[in-house]
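REQUEST FORM: STRUCTURE PREDICTION
Request ID: SP-0412
Submitted by: Lab K.M.
Chain count: 1
Length (residues): 264
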Amino acid sequence: MRRVFVMLATVSLMLGASRPLLAQSADELAKQTQNPVASLISLPFQGNWDFGIGDREATGTTLNIQPVAPFGLTKEWNVILRVIMPVASQPTDSGDQRLTGMGDTTMTVFFSPAKTGKVIWGAGPALLIPTATSQGLGTEKFGMGPSIVALVQPGKWTVGALWNQIWSMDGANDRADVNAMYLQPFANYNLGQGLALGAAMEASANWDVDDEQWTTYLLFSISKVTLLGKRPVSFLAAAGPAVASPTGRPDWRLRFAATFLFPR
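STATUS: Completed
RESULT:
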């Protein structure tokens, strides 16, 4: 009987010790998912629903497939490859039909120090690749420009911003040139057990138009890192209004995302 009590006590201590480790692992993964230049392979599937398009207040949908792959370049530097491949279904201007297919791909190559201090950062080229399957879903232009990300992660917080500017370099002569900027400041507060609350502004600017240059969403999110079988996954739900947008563009956005994580 004494041996049974000893075994039960040992198992209880082991379970009690494992819970903090599991929570710590989930919290660490949560903070890594909030860091665009983390040394973490991930495969996000991000679904967006944009409401209030045009006179009919139609809805547009976009599924962004966003693989992230970090590589060790040297002992001092990492390279992080981030790709965004959108699959969209958007109403036409007339509103009597929809365009469905793949949009243009954006690929960013960040160079980031392998050993970071208080400020985590990365910089490199952003590429626009004309992969759209329909003229209405893409620019038919190849583009390039700089991209920078910087963030800090004090305590339970992650606060930072991502920026890029892309100019068209080549493409169809009868299509408008690309001169576009993207800015995304973000903040996340980690509650523990892999659960986090966040807020982000996603602002796009088209510098080649005279009026209504900005399309900006303010999104509030909740996310949770958990296990799907044996695979760690981060689930996210977000929603928020369009605080600036051209006439006829969406009023607000709803987002659901699942990010499959591949810790090293």
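NOTES: The chain has one helix and 14 strands.
Reviewed by: T.R.
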